[in-house]
Design goal:
The chain is an alpha+beta fold and 300 residues long. The chain is 34% helix and 27% strand.
């Protein structure tokens, strides 16, 4: 595929994407022989188009872009990048031709060699339909899940798959997400997810922390409620943790998954989702129990 053909493909696909104007729709143009070399465009509705250039730092072994490539991308208004972060342009032209020129330039700037062909991937049915009509759609083969070494990018992908807010955990290399206070929970929940240990003893570690302290006077009652919960529920493991020098405790929710033999992305997604849902279920069960002096009863 020569430069003219590549530009024509990009501009035509972007014309379809811009025409549907659906927030969250995206297209990816990747080098056919190097899937980690790509540009991605997503539609943000009224906020226009957001473009990303793959940093090649999402999975081991990483291949960071050169200083020359990063400088060239800055000229095209792509900034950021690094481990598990792409280079982003938040002001991509909304005119398909201009957007295609910027993206083609970004591909050339980022990667030292031009791939033989471009593969287009999308979540937009309209774009896929257009590609099929042109004989350009490449069906992605359905592959069986393969166990891989547990890595941080799998945690990020799991949080993103659940649609949760994602933050880098300042206490380590992992990620965190959170749920704010509402009347059913009685408190907010911060959940930290990280990869712990060294190969071969890698562990997916999940820790949730309630955001409101439990007064010391309430500690005996709270321990009784936790024991009642655990009579029928085994996970996540709920405990009360005292902070040194404080006369109160904090609710902790923990679960660890040994992953030395490798994990699939689906297993990571399911484990994180199940632990989060169970922690939120505990808070929903606990909240009315704290407001009554009756003996605790498990919710049916």
């Amino acid at each position: 595929m020569n430069g003219k053909q590549r530009y024509h493909l990009m501009s035509s696909v972007l014309a379809v994407l811009c025409e549907i104007e659906r927030e969250g729709a995206y297209v990816i143009f990747e080098n056919a022989d190097r899937p980690d070399e790509y540009v991605q465009v997503s539609h943000r509705g009224a906020d226009g188009l957001l473009a990303e250039v793959g940093s090649r730092e999402w999975a081991e072994p990483t291949h960071p872009l050169s200083d020359v490539a990063r400088s060239a991308l800055e000229v095209l208004r792509f900034t950021g990048g690094g481990p598990e972060r792409n280079y982003v342009n938040q002001a991509l032209p909304t005119e398909p031709g201009g957007a295609a020129r910027t993206l083609a330039g970004a591909l050339d700037a980022a990667y030292s060699r031009r791939g033989p062909d471009l593969v287009v991937k999308t979540n937009a049915a309209e774009v896929e339909s257009w590609l099929r009509e042109q004989g350009l759609w490449i069906q992605q083969p359905t592959a069986l899940p393969v166990a891989e070494p547990l890595q941080q990018n799998m945690i990020r992908a799991a949080l993103r798959a659940h649609g949760w807010r994602i933050f880098h955990d300042e206490s380590g290399e992992g990620f965190m997400t959170w749920w704010g206070w509402d009347t059913s929970l009685g408190m907010g929940l911060h959940m930290h997810v990280d990869v712990c240990g060294n190969a071969p003893w890698r562990v997916l570690a999940i820790v949730g922390i309630g955001d409101r302290p439990i007064p010391e006077a309430e500690r005996p009652r709270m321990l009784e409620l936790i024991n009642t919960w655990h009579e029928d529920r085994r996970w996540p493991c709920v405990s009360l943790a005292r902070q040194e020098g404080e006369d109160s405790s904090w609710l902790h929710f923990g679960w660890s998954l040994p992953a030395g033999a490798g994990v699939t992305q689906g297993l990571v997604n399911d484990t994180i989702g199940a632990v989060a849902d169970s922690a939120l279920d505990f808070l929903r069960w606990l909240n009315p129990q704290r407001r009554t002096s009756d003996a605790p009863q498990m919710a049916g």
